[in-house]
Amino acid sequence: MTHPARARGPVPAPALVTLGEAMAVVAATTPGPFAHGAPLRLGWAGAEATVAVGVSRLGHTAAWTGRVGDDAAGAMILAGLRAEGVDVTGARTDPDAPTGLTLRERRTADRLRVSYYRTGLAGSRLAPADLDEDRISGARVLHVTGITPALSATARAAAEHAVAVARAAGVTVSLDVNHRERLWSRAEAAEVLGRLLPYTDLVFAGPEEAALFVPDGEPEEMARALTRLGPAEAVLKLGAGGALAVTGGACHVRPAVPVSAVDPVGAGDAFVSGYLAALLDGSPVPERLRLAALCGAFAVSVPGDWEGIPHRTELGLLAAQDITR
Description:
The protein is α/β, with parallel strands linked by helices. The protein has helices spanning 47-57, 72-83, 133-138, 148-151, 153-169, 186-196, 207-210, 219-227, 267-281, 285-300; strands at 3-4, 16-19, 23-28, 40-45, 62-65, 67-69, 92-94, 101-108, 111-117, 141-145, 172-176, 202-205, 233-237, 243-247, 250-254.
């Protein structure tokens, strides 16, 4: 039996609702193999949680739903999200499964090796009954990723149910493909996420992820092909090559903001948080891409998943590097 992280009550629906897995992270702070006495950093991470943090830092209300263990790691995650202004009213502490764990070893200066301990643990036990349908229906955006449906049958059902509830209520549905080969095959991901695409309004993908659904080719044509599968808007994340968005027949291109990359982990989720925050601002697509690129640049410049995401008052710090401003 699970119980809420907080006593529940009437809470206004946040602008963004997301659901998924959050895990404790033990990361090396210097290059080299894991060994006794190696300097380590304790933290937490999760794709959807990172998006919620980014949207919150950029001035919009955000809520995260998921399960963590009834343990110190779970308490750390929920406290961290609350400290970032993220609503965790819908989060659950699960006394029957511990919080998942990620180990990050910086084996060499430019090679990261990651190990996940998540199978059967709290995050993968997310289920449709954990969702607050009223809060989803009252949100402006529901954001899901391809990680959650890959975790377990119940987590898949939760993601699919959340999309159905949002769609029925006219809530904008955002999907980041976020394919993880360690969780499922490309064929399975294409089948499951392909069923969600017609019910989404906005899809994010890298070129290899887009190729799960459409023929490999030039990024613009791949994005246009994605929009023919249902989403009105398709955004391709191109890493150091920037990003592009196709919507309403128009293609908008944005170069990356040049910075010194320190840690690439979480950059894609930071990019998504900027894009969705600008969407909630009511900004046009070029401004969404601009804010997304800035958030991605901030993220790769700082160690950690979400730690480097900027507050709105900090955006000017990279203005000189944003050559297309």
